Structures are given as C-alpha cells and as structure tokens.
Records
---
Amino acid sequence: MAALFQRRGLPDPCRLEAQFWEQWPAAIRVAVKTRRAVMNNIIWLVGAIVIVIAILSFLGLR
C-alpha cells in the first residue's frame, strides 16, 4: 500500500498517523484509544444482537 502512495508522490498515511500520534501527549492518546475501543465494542455488540435477531426470526422464534 505504501508503494502505491509513493508512486503517486503522496505521503504514506500510516507514517503520517504515526507522526500525528507522537506529537500528542500520552494522556490524550490513551483517552482517544479508550474512546475508540468503547465505540468498537458498542458496534460489535449491536452487530451481534442484529445477527441473533436475524437467526431467531429466520427460525420463527422472535
């Protein structure tokens, strides 16, 4: 992926993100990562509920 950006003369987005994170204080980085983890868990939980409801409705148990 990085080679694709280099061929087009664009900076590597992964490297830019790493530089961005290095500039932030550690407490802010932890808060953002924690918030991201909470949001990922919520999305995972909602997806699991939707799948369970879909299976139950397919079986006629809802």
---
Amino acid sequence: MAFPRIGLACLPMLFLFFSQGNPRCSNPLTNILIHIEPSCCTSVSNQTINKAVDACYVQRDTTFSHCRISAYIFTVNEEAWCVDPRAPWLKKRLRKLEKRGIYCRVL
C-alpha cells in the first residue's frame, strides 16, 4: 500500500518536469500584448506625454468618416492621447518608441 502514496507524491514532480520546456512558451499569455484600437480623435494636443507608451496608432483625416482629423494616438494601459502630427517633439518620441520596438500602426 505504500506504492500509491509514492505515486501521488511523484505526480506533481512530473507536471513540474514537463512544464520546464521552452520558457518563452510556458505561459503564452504573458508574451502576448493585447491592445484595443482607440476610437477617433476629435481634437489633438501639442503637449508632451511623459508616460511609457504601450502602443501607437496613426489616424488619418480619411480614417473615420465622422471625424476628419489627423493624429498620432499614444496609449498607456486604457488611456489614449491624441497628438498633433505637427507637434515639435513628436519625431524624437517616435524614434524612441521604435528603439523599444513600438511602431505606429495606421488605423
């Protein structure tokens, strides 16, 4: 009767052993960033954004039929900022984002 106890004790070790495969795939949800596309910007700002940006989008004046405005949209978690494409600091910020692997996606 000692065998079933040892078998039960070894079962968690087997799960642990097989879960040690490819570390990048051990928890696929941590490797996937899900970004929700923002709705249209109705106004833009030249004010700088001092937060770490998660995603970047480009809204063209032809993107949405109900709002005809060009903007760069920066998102942080669930917040979004609409930036004027002519903002003097924008090009430098876009280069920094690209160095982090964040590229603006056209909506």
